[in-house]
Structures are given as C-alpha cells and as structure tokens.
Design brief:
Pfam families: HTH_3. InterPro entries: Cro/C1-type_HTH, Lambda_DNA-bd_dom_sf. The chain has about 200 residues and is α+β, with helices and mostly antiparallel strands. Helices cover about 25% and strands about 25% of the residues. Helix 1 packs across helix 3 and helix 2 (about 20-25) crosses helix 3.
C-alpha cells in the first residue's frame, strides 16, 4: 500500500478538490488527508476507503489497485453517454457459468451506479455486467437511452413482435418510441448485501 498516498493526492487533484473539501466529504480532518497523502498514516479502514472513493468519484479499486490492466467498474449516470463510450475502458469476458440462460457473445463492462444516482433495477453498491448491443437478443434487463437519459428497463417483445419497456415500479410495459434505443444487455447482476 506504499503508493496509496500519491494515488489519493492524484485522484483528489483530478476531482478538483482541496484537502479541506475532501476532508469534509469523507468526515475527517484535512490534517488526516495530509497524513494519508504523505504516507504518514498507512492503514486506512474499509469504511474510510469507501467514503474516500465516493468523495473522489472513483471506484474503490482505483485507490487500492495499482494494476491498471484489470478493468474497474464504471460509474453509470442517468445523464451522459454509456460509461464505456469515450474511454479506454477494457471489457471483460464472463465465464458462461456466471451467465446462465444468456445468449450473447463478446465482452461486457462492469458498471455500478455513480454516487448519488438512483436507477431502476440497480441500487447503490450493486454491480452489473452489461454487454454493449443495440440489438434485442432476448427478454431481460437492458441499458437503454430514453428521451436522452440512460435507464435500465426490462425489455421484451409483445405479441406483434414490437419491443416494450418496463420500469421497475410499473407493471405496465410501455411500447417502443423513436426516443428509445438499446445500448446494452445486462448479462449478470450482483446485489450488495446489507446486514
């Protein structure tokens, strides 16, 4: 963990935060932030690391893992493009055992809701593997663009073969409209267990 301090400083500067602002977000003093960045305090508890990652707007792995060859979960935001667009984000290939009943080939991306984001079907701390695709492959959860915003919807075909979209809190599917487009199929979903 000898490179944790410089990583904290680098991520803080990238987030345009001074030490005092980061300290307020994490719930510690700015002196503690200085100690973390300098390496004077080498052990940081899990709760503080999670708060630090949230305050910096980065995945926990960006703080802990110096190996950038491994893909980290991407933050999913309702406003903006799919999280893998415009980045050097690496996709992963999931073993077939982790995706029973799914028909898809190719890479997928691990995503989690960005701090403060509220999304149907995906709660804070949950992790989803999404295979980018603009093609309907089978009924299930999809990342879609709807009226310029990203959303997760249950997508299926009606009796006429038309796509329908269903929100988490609405049992009535809505028909396809020109302002909807498929962006990716959710091929696996892991829920954060809370005690």
């Amino acid at each position: 963990m000898e490179t944790l301090g410089p990583r904290i400083k680098q991520l803080r500067l990238e987030a345009n935060l001074n030490k005092a602002a980061l300290a307020r977000r994490v719930g510690v003093s700015d002196v503690t932030i200085s100690y973390w960045e300098s390496g004077a305090i080498k052990q940081i508890g899990h709760e503080r690391l999670v708060a630090l990652a949230g305050a910096l707007g980065c995945p926990l792995s960006a703080l802990l893992d110096n190996d950038t060859s491994r893909p980290a979960p991407l933050f999913l935001r309702a406003d903006g493009p799919p999280p893998w667009e415009g980045t050097e984000a690496k996709g992963i290939e999931l073993p077939i055992e982790l995706t029973p009943g799914q028909r898809w080939d190719g890479d997928c991306h691990l995503v989690t809701p960005a701090p403060g984001e509220a999304l149907d079907y995906l709660n804070a701390g949950d992790l989803a593997a999404i295979a980018p695709s603009e093609i309907f492959r089978q009924p299930g959860l999809y990342l879609i663009e709807e009226a310029g915003r990203l959303a997760l919807r249950r997508v299926q075909q009606d009796a006429k073969g038309e796509l329908t979209f269903q929100r988490q809190d609405d049992a009535t599917p809505t028909p396809y409209t020109p302002d909807c487009r498929l962006l990716g199929k959710v091929v696996a979903l892991w829920r954060l267990e809370t005690p």
